Amino acid sequence: MEATPQTLLRAVTDIVRECGGVMLNADRNKSVVDEKAGHANFVTTYDKMIQALLREKLLKLLPEAVFVGEEEEAHASIEKGYAFIVDPIDGTTNFIRDYHASAVSVGLSRDGAPYMGVVYNPYLDEMFTAVKGEGAYLNGRPIHVSKHPLKDGIVIFGTATYYEELARRTFELAYDYYGKSLDVRRSGSAALDLCSVAAGRAELFFELRLCPWDYAAASLIVTEAGGRVTTFEGEELPFGESCSVKAVNGVADERKE
Fold this sequence. Notes:
Strand content: 25-35%
Radius of gyration: 17 Å
Number of domains: 2
CATH topology of the largest domain: Fructose-1,6-Bisphosphatase, Chain A, domain 1
Largest sheet: 7 strands, mixed
Number of helices: 6
CATH architecture of the largest domain: 2-Layer Sandwich
CATH class of the largest domain: Alpha Beta
Helix content: 25-40%
Shape: globular
Distance between the termini: 51 Å
């Protein structure tokens, strides 16, 4: 018998929670930190370890799926069938510094469109989940975006140090939002930032370049929580390539202010 979406979701969350335990029990003295292309673009022993664990266990659940992980040099097409789109540790610099703002992110797409999303912050034991058409949840309880306008809202933004060409524009936009909102934040984990919008903790998030594994899971969680996620220019997210990302609660949009 084919697994129901909720049965599959429970199995995925069990795997993700196990990976979160690996993060919590990490021995940083034994973790090798390498730099990828670009300034401060890190990968650790634990990024690779968790990705290998996710690959093994997720593909046992859905052997027909392809696996797209951040720590791979080549990525399979997600246009046909199922695809797991995975970030083993979103917020690697935070993880290296023991900053406690990192997450395991697993998105599942079907024929190129988001179908399931799981984002887990092991430090707070917060498991965000969504299945297409079935709402968004935090530790099993429904979550919804807030109804605050931008002037009463919190804006979260991201900018990776290895995309230096985008830094100035990002901080200029953040300064503009600072003048229009209650306050601004920058956490270093796009997946958790998007989930903060979904949970009503913030009203708007933006980043000018993210990879699919950064947003595949959390963008569905925002949408299922009643929010809206597009590129910064207002286009549909591609899920198969890097793009800008903007998430709003549907009220806190500066074009409506």
